[in-house]
C-alpha cells in the first residue's frame, strides 16, 4: 500500500511541476513552485526506490539515499525514468547465475619416465636431477629458467651446479642468473648504506649486515671476497649493538663468528641472544656447532638434545646419531 501511495504522490507532484514549467511565462513564484513540487516528487520517488532496493544496496543509508535523490533531482523526469528502468532490469531480469562450480581442464597424461614431465611440475630436487642426468640441453636450459624462480637459498646451489654444464647456453644463463642475484643484493647494500649515512639507525645497520651475510650464506662469495663480506657483516652488527642491542643481532653475530672460525666468541654472542629472549631451540643448532668446534662434546650433545625430531630433517638425523 505504501509503495502505491509513494508512486501516486511522485506522479502527482512531478506532473504539477511540469505543468507549471510548461507555462509560457515563468515568474519567480512559478519557479519556486516548480522546484518545490519537483523536490517533493524526488523525495517520494527516492523513498520508493530505496524500499525496492535489495538489502545489500540499502546501506550505508545516507550514501544510497543521497545518490538516488540527487540523480533524480538534477535530471528532472529523465532521472526518474532511468532509475525506474535500472530497477526493473535489475529486479526482474537479473544476471543468470551459473550452476557449474568447476571448470573442465585438459587431462594431463601420466609420463612414461621422469624426463617426459614438464620442468614446471618439478621442485628443486627434480630440477637438480634434470641438470645432472638429462641429456637434452634444451631441457636443461628450461630447468635453469625454472630455477631462477625458486627462493634464493634453493636457486643458488643449483645455478652453481649449472655453471659446470657442457652446454654454453646453460652455463651462460646460469651465470647471468647468479649475476642478477648478486647485483640485487649489492644494490640493496648501497641503498641501505645511503640511508644509514643520512640517519644512523640500528635497523639500517642490521639490514646492511644481513645483506652481506646473505652473500656469504648463499655461497655467492668465495675466498678473500667472502672473508671481506663477513668482516663487513661483523662491523655493521657491532654498530647495530652500539645503537640498539637486541637478540636477533646477537644471533646473527654469533653465526658470523662461526663462519669466521671463532667459536668462543660465537658462544658469547649466542648466549646473549638466548638471554635476550630467543628460545633455546632457535639457538641450539649454533651453540652445538660452536661447542663441537671448541671440543666440548658434552655441551654439544646437550644442545643437540633440543634438535627437532621430524623424520628426514638433517638436524633430526644428527640428533639420532648422537643419541
From TrEMBL:
InterPro entries: ARM-like, ARM-type_fold, TPR-like_helical_dom_sf
Top-level taxonomic group: Bacteria
Transmembrane segments: 33-53, 65-93
Keywords tagged on the record: Membrane, Transmembrane, Transmembrane helix
Organism, scientific name: Photobacterium sanguinicancri
Name listed for the protein in its UniProt record: HEAT repeat domain-containing protein
